[in-house]
Design a protein that fits this description.
The chain is an alpha/beta fold. It has helices at residues 30-44, 70-84, 104-117, 139-152, 163-167, 198-206, 215-232; strands spanning 5-6, 20-25, 48-55, 89-95, 121-125, 177-181, 190-193, 241-248. The chain has one domain (5-248): LmbE-like (Rossmann fold). The chain starts with a strand and ends in a 10-residue tail after the last strand. It has 7 helices and 8 strands; from the N terminus they run ββαβαβαβααββααβ. Strands 1-7-8-6-5-2-3-4 form an 8-stranded mixed β-sheet, sandwiched between helices. Helix 1 packs across helix 6 (198-206) and helix 2 runs antiparallel to helix 6 (198-206).
């Protein structure tokens, strides 16, 4: 599939074919707020998309009566939301919500999964804090970004990093592209027009009722954010978009080496 994206300064070649994408986020619902429109566009074009949720979301929710059920509820919400945008392959690292760190344990698991699936694009939360909207920068979000960025380079492509993975048959892999979301606006260099997939994105977001009891307010907020993102990206008035910081990890403009 070719990318449904616009913006002149994007490093991503719009004609480059994407066949497989692996998305890393901290909690159930993060990927739906940040990238479900883009994911819906990918899957509609036949791209295989997988999720890896690093925590179980055990600290989420508002109802004290749900404490014993919250992990099961959030797992089910994520499964249903993913299905709405064409994703059925979901992995969990089962880290504790609110305690996520870019440890070697976590980084090794990220390397393991990327080597296993060998995607064209890894999509992750951004490792840099967004001071304009700090809610995007939950510490777990930042930890995801840091762990994935460290995994992508150099460990993923270094055959001597985590040698137990190579011994298990998971050989080193050079990732072409890293897409990051929820970071500072000044880092955004790639905008995806998701106008045709707004309804699918919002349907996915609506599934997470344990986290967002005021559905109408949430709906207005998400719609408004997508409209403003499209305006920031230079799309025509009335379009909706999602924004990313796209990094070419391995391509014609990069050099080999650790």
């Amino acid at each position: 599939m070719t990318s449904p994206a616009v913006q002149a300064q994007s490093p991503f070649d719009p004609d480059r074919r994407i066949e497989r994408v692996l998305c890393f986020t901290a909690h159930p619902d993060d990927v739906d707020f940040g990238a479900a429109g883009t994911i819906a566009a990918w899957t509609a074009a036949g791209v295989q998309v997988s999720y890896c949720i690093m925590t179980d979301g055990d600290a989420g929710g508002f109802d004290p009566g749900q404490r014993d059920e919250i992990v099961r509820l959030r797992n089910e919400e994520q499964r249903r939301a993913a299905a709405l945008v064409g994703v059925t392959d979901i992995h969990y690292l089962h880290e504790r919500d609110g305690y996520l760190e870019p440890s070697h344990k976590v980084i090794r698991e990220v390397v393991r999964l990327i080597r296993q699936l060998r995607p064209d694009v890894v999509l992750s939360m951004h490792p840099e804090r967004n001071w304009d909207r700090i809610q995007k920068s939950h510490p777990d979000h930042l930890a995801v970004g840091e762990a994935v960025t460290r995994a992508v380079y150099p460990a993923l492509e270094n055959p001597f990093a985590y040698p137990e993975l190579a011994a298990a048959g998971l050989e080193a892999y050079k990732l072409p592209w890293l897409w990051l979301f929820a970071g500072p606006e000044e880092r955004e260099n790639h905008f995806v027009d998701v106008t045709d997939h707004v309804d699918s994105k919002l349907e996915a977001v609506h599934i997470h009722v344990s986290q967002h009891p005021d559905i109408e307010a949430m709906d207005r907020t998400v719609r408004g954010l997508m409209l403003r993102t499209a305006e920031r990206g230079g799309l025509p008035f009335g379009r909706s978009a999602e924004a990313f910081h796209v990094v070419e990890v391995n391509g014609p403009g990069t050099i080999a080496g650790f």
